[in-house]
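Problem 3 from the worked examples.
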Amino acid sequence: MEKYREVGRQVKRVDARDKVTGRAMFTDDLCPKPCLVAKILHSTIGNGRVVSMDVTEAKAVPGVVAVFTCFDVPDTKFPVAGHPWYAASAAQKRDVADRKLLDDRVRIYGDNIAAVVAEDEVAANRALRKIKVEYEEYPVTYDPREAMQGTNPPVQEDKPDNIVGHTLAVTPEDKLKAMGYSSVEDAVRDPKYHHFAFHAFTGEQSQAHIEVCVSYCYEENGKLTCVSSTQIPHICRRIIGQALDIPWGSVRVIKPYIGGGFGTKQDIHFEPLNAWLCHQVGGRCVKLELSREECFWDTSGRQPKDFEVEASVGDDMRLHARSIKAWSNTGGYIHHGHALVLNSVNTFRWLYHTQEDAIRCEAWTVHTNGPHTGAMRAYGVPEGIWAAECLMGDIAHDMGWDGVEFRMKNAITPGYVDEFSPSNTISYRTDGLRACVERGKQLIGWDEKRQEYAHQDGPIRHGVGVAFLVYKTAVAPFALETSNCQITLNQDGTFQLQMGATEIGQGADTVFCQMAAEAIGVRTEDIHIVSTQDTDVAPYDPGAYASRQTFVSGTACKDAGQKMRRRILELAARLYPDFQGELDLRDHAVWDAAGNKVVDLPDLALEAYYNLHKTDQISTRGQATVHQNAIVTGCTFCDVTVDMPLAQVTVNKIVNVQDNGRLMNPKLVEQQMHGGMAQSIGFALSEELLVDPATGRVRNATLLDYKVPTAMDVPELIAENVETQDPMGPYGNKAVGETPIISPAPAIRDAILNATGVKFYEMPMTPQRLFEGFKREGLI
């Protein structure tokens, strides 16, 4: 593996001191005080239409500047999902415009129907309570399979059957005939093999980020400026322009530090409305900040998904045939739509397979009157891996096989190419999975604990479980992957690094500094980066999603750094022609081939800026358009204690070992893995937005009722990596930001199965569901 000086160092985060001392400025910190405050009136029905609205009393409240209703806004629809833009009009269809600033057509409980702008929050809230609304109410449908039969009226007018997307990937007919079958169903139910089938469910998990969604807007010099806590500032600029039907260049978006997003800030929820309100009040500064409750039910959590899974397996531990059907509930609006469940069924297909395996993957995404859903960490993959690992866990348990051995017999192998992917560009090139599994077994004590926990009885039992993961880095080949970076040589020989990619708390800025330093040949400490993105000056990048930034944006960063290195050496050769041979940049100086110092870098930089004959203020632009990807694999092992009478699971230890390619900064990777593991504990055992199916209303939209794991719930976490050198990453790296959340939840499920023999298919496995399962099996 190639040796690097800066890449791979455990460099301290470049933003650590400011964040620890409180100097880091977030959106609300930067907002001018005082400013106007905007608040939204939400519908109190889950499906219907606003017939009329009386705002007379609201306008009379002291301090109210203006009140706007769904009947006042432009009749313009726009998309909200953070998808890249496509110049070809046919490709733009994937970025569906189905939202209005305010809408008289109510599709979900809490839909946005009016807005108040006031001098302060108190006046705004008082005015909201005085708005009188008359509705025409329709029946609420929350079940996606029921909604597919059609509703009157449909949730979205252009989809009479409420189906957003439907896809089918199935083993070709000639291959099935060669196996002696007419269909995958025949193969799955072949009596010569062992048959397994179940129905699984994953609920709507909320991102529960610390900083709420907030923005403020003002007009200056004929330009509308929006400062927002967003993961996607350049896409935000475009969507504001679309929503207001104004040139995109007349919009400026600024992204300061962000207090967490995990996908919900990959949607443009309220920035367009805030921008429009700002314009309506003459360009005065308007702040629109969501309450914690609004963040739960009026932004976008993880799509709930139903799965029907069938499979057959031989006595040789080889999978023979598999089928998965998935129904994804996107709620009243498309947001990220069908892409999420596609990730679910695709990863189900990729993780386990054999050459003899016949596969059928079918998926639907459906509109209901449920709350918003969209991107959340790992973008549909945890749900697909849940279904895959429920299957593998069941088979190993029922057949009496070692769960690790069985999985390894069928796990993805190097050279795998997805036959259903566009241009066959989804392939598995570098394999650390086998080493990950061996290390994970050692760290958890797999063989010893399996033996120790065998033949338990009594109300309190112990179990050990395992789950594997697979994850595709970035969004190529399904969507555009591009990035730009700019590096400037400063007068003192340090460098200014400017990225369009966004730091959202994950440590991207630190890694970009390391990558740039490696490419130039200087220390990371010589790179200065500004975490704020300003679309007027920051180079274009779609933003933070799909674990793409180190992989795609890092490629642009490396490109700019290599160009900077060449420019510096070319300048030195021009200014100092007496030195012979190829010049080199190291130790903050330029050296000749004989090892003589040509010039210190600070002196060369001063000469570049202030040479009387010809100044050469060096700035380079790096660009990347990436068409390939890299597949991450790994595994999680966990140890649990199950108190069946109390229906309580205590997670004692989690071991997560992954192949993320080359690690850019091992300490940051460990931090990412710890955070993902903690989120996955919540997904496994407690986190779910509870929706009343009769009204569509979220029942637990507070941090008191939505059960996020606390420090008391997080056990010993062990995160390790098996490093490989992936040929597609700029420095051999793959994804890491989202992968740690994928496999801990099914590993916990597998440990509960090992401890109790009870199979659970609904996630989260709440005390109520655990109690019902233990009671059903006669254990309590």
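Problem 4, a separate protein:
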Amino acid sequence: MAKIKHNNFLETVNEVFTDATNEGVLHLYANDNDRPGRTIIVNGKRLFHFGTTGYLALEQDPRLKRAAIAAIEQYGTQFPLSKTYISHPLYRELEAAVTQMYGHPIIITKNSTLGHIGVIPSAVDDRDAIVLDHQVHWSVQNAAQILKNRSVPIELVRHNNLDMLEDKIKKYANTRQRIWYMADGIYSMYGDYAPVKELMFLMDRYPQLHLYFDDVHGMSWTGRNGTGYIMSEIEEPTDRMLLFGTLSKTFGASGAVLVCKNKALYKKIKTFGGPLTFSAQLEPASVAAATASAKIHLSPEIYRLQKELNSRTKYFNELLKQTDLPLIDNNNSPVFYIGTGMPKTGYNFVNRLMNEGFFVNLGIFPAVPVKNTGVRITISRHNQFEEIKALVDAMVYHYPKALEDTHTTKERVYHAFRLPYKTVTAYPENSQLAIQLEDSVDSIDKKQWDNHMKGQGTFDWMGLKFLETVFSGNALKEHNWKFKYLCILDSDQEPVLMTFFTVALWKDDMFSKPGVSRMVEASRMNDPYHMTSKVLSMGSLFTEGQHLFINEAHPLKEQALHLMMRTLESMEKTCGAKMLVLRDFSVNGTLNAFFHGQGFVKLNMPESCYIELQEGVDIASHIAKLSTRNRKHYKKEIAAFEPLFEVRILKQCSLEELDQMEALYEKVRKNNLGLNTFSFPSKLFSIMSGHPQWEFITLRFKTAPEKIIGVMFCYNNLDLTYVPAFIGMDYQYVRSHHTYRQLLFQTIKRAMAMGFKRIDLGMTAAFEKRKLGATVTEKVAYLQTADNFILDQLGVMERQQ
């Protein structure tokens, strides 16, 4: 089988960021500003700044500015020498001051990202294991991945889920020397905290557990000497803890700081820590500014600054409590997150606030799940109380308008964030559209369905009736699917939109690279349902084709699409699905922007192949039209072997034949980890036998006709389209006798003999199908998850390949 085109995470992020940039909320440039910190000028418009991470406003403190200027005047713009050889003269004072702040040994790094890259590979031994909190900062996750080359296992646990963490500790207790749990102190999007005290309790219970904290967002605004959130929760760090703080953000300068109480580990990291050795050191201006800030942190003034900031965050919290704005996490950090749910709503809300004179950040994928888009607001000492009040007033006014503009409601937002919401908001109904939602195709008008879905894979009316029979009443839960049929009709009862959905158990790694699926399948030897999820999908795992009919010319097309989204969300909630999948769309289809705006990310699907058949063209004429090279392949690999085979077209099979066919199908399924799915129920094959729409093309050696060595399972869609839905093969003969190519050829030959207009050759093996004249098209799916955990977990596994 040919390779499948797999997904590129960066391409997905690029698409999301491109949409946000086109909406005017990302990749902006600030203009000159005479009141920096308090305001920011964007596109010539002065905005009150509610997006800074300089919470204490120290980046504008005159003392830090004077120190930086003096350092440049005396020492120049940089000290171009590795710190391993010699440190800049100003470093000694900075290191002494920061050591005094923490009361423990510290190491200054260029920034936290390079710091993690330097520290994690030095601190973590080859005999250790790493467990990452799902939401720990990207810089920590990225640094941890360096250890994949040293076979250090890296696991992911759901955010702040200590039960999962404890399970991982037990998993590695007998095989690994130390188990590092890596987390943030304050998480940068929602402003929520790590459960520090509970983690310390786990450390007491499990001596192998070591903690690694990135507390850059907890720095300065809290803790003794402004040493951050983690230090405010513990009496002092233990020998089994590493703590990162920052000299940028709230600290007002540049650089980062590692706190390490373990003397042996401290010496090891300081002696050689990757970027700590080979990267340039901090510029003189940054060192001087950081020293000036450290002096403030060591003075009583830091507590006055913290108090001033706290009065503003407390005021903002009090104002928010008087509104019904969806604040995602209630805490006393300076980071606040107002959920908008769908990206399109977030774009609208941010633009509205900017037009009112307020700059806020957009929280978007991959920092948060796509449908957990929202507005990230940070409070600083720059912000005045009247500006804070004005921002809240603006949000109260514009939030419902942003929802209305983007055809959504507050309930949908609360549902996306799994927040309780009792009041039912009436959707603005359009009397010209009606929703028909059915559980069985029996309730759908057969003529109307086939009129719009004819010639599409195996999902004409009779094909869906067949699937309902096969995927119900089975012993295994993965073999039982729920079907939902959606028709949105206009006042004349004509469909504006038609589609169907299934609720089924999927393997999370279905579209992952084969190496990832092999890792997951190893775990499924003990737990067959490891990394599986209930999925609400357009179409089904059995069907392939254009599952969505929409009347592009209808004036109510957009309203119909929004009704479909609302219906999907209601079904998702009712059935408990963890993932929504909209399948089989063109790469550059017209609905791309709409689905992105509704909180879906685009993923590559295996390429789809088809052949359009002209009336009167026989197989010989078809082969003659192939390229010279492909005709050579045909003669050498297909025509030369055809005389050896007995080809039978069966409508009904014996039990022995069905057993052979099922076994051959299972060999292909298990071999094709590039599209990793569950098996089909055994009764599928017996129900196919004798069904008027199904037939079997079997391949046998003439010398041993009792043994089937290959089979194509083919469906007749309304005498229009011939669908080889899936295949079974004995791999012993694939290379020696080119049996896969022979089955493809016999399928094309059969379809032409029967007078079909089209052959849907389905997904995968595009290279082989193209050789026989197939047209290959790229297809995409749109995915929406309750959180990013599954995607991130697969990403961690892929990076370990």
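Solution to problem 4. DSSP finds 28 helices and 29 strands in the chain. The chain has four domains: 9-55+303-416, 62-297, 434-578+786-799, 609-777.
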